[in-house]
Amino acid sequence: MADAMLDKFNKYLENTNRVMVIATxxxxxxxxxxxxxxxxxxxELEKLYKKYEAMYRNKIGFYLNALARKPNELSRASSLT
Length: 81
What we know:
The radius of gyration is 29 Å and the shape is elongated. The protein has helices at 2-14, 18-26, 28-80. Helices cover 93% and strands 0% of the residues. It is mostly helical. It has one domain (2-80). The protein contains three helices and no strands. It comes from Oryza meyeriana var. granulata. InterPro entries: hAT-like_transposase_RNase-H.
């Protein structure tokens, strides 16, 4: 029975009118229903971006500090010899 229902569902989806799909996407009522989800997703992506940016800045800061220390260490080593 489930296979018959799935076949009917797939047949229905194959025959959808593309104009109706576009109209549904552009319908303002549909957009308003999805607006809250889009805002939530945007907020989560922003948090993720800020977290990644902080990690990246910490990593870059570590490398820049290490590079800044190397010339000082090299100059000390050459002055000892």
